[in-house]
Amino acid sequence: MPDRKLTNEMLERMVDTNDEWIVKRTGIRERRIAQNTATWELALEAGKRALTDAGLDAAALDLIIVGTATPDFFTPSVSCIVQGKLGAEKAMAFDLSAACSGFVYCVDVADSFIRAGKAKNILVICAETLSRIIDYTDRSTCVIFGDGAAAAVFQASDADDGVLTTYMRANGTLGECLKAPILPEEDPLAPGPRAVCDHRFLKMAGSDVFRFTATAVPEAIDAVLHQANMTADQIDWFVLHQANVRILHMITTRYGLNPDKVYVNIDRYGNTSGVSVALCLDEMRKAGKLQPGQHIVICGFGGGLTYGAALIRI
Ligand code: COA
Question: Which atom of ligand 1 lies closest to the CA of 139?
Answer without folding.
Answer: 7
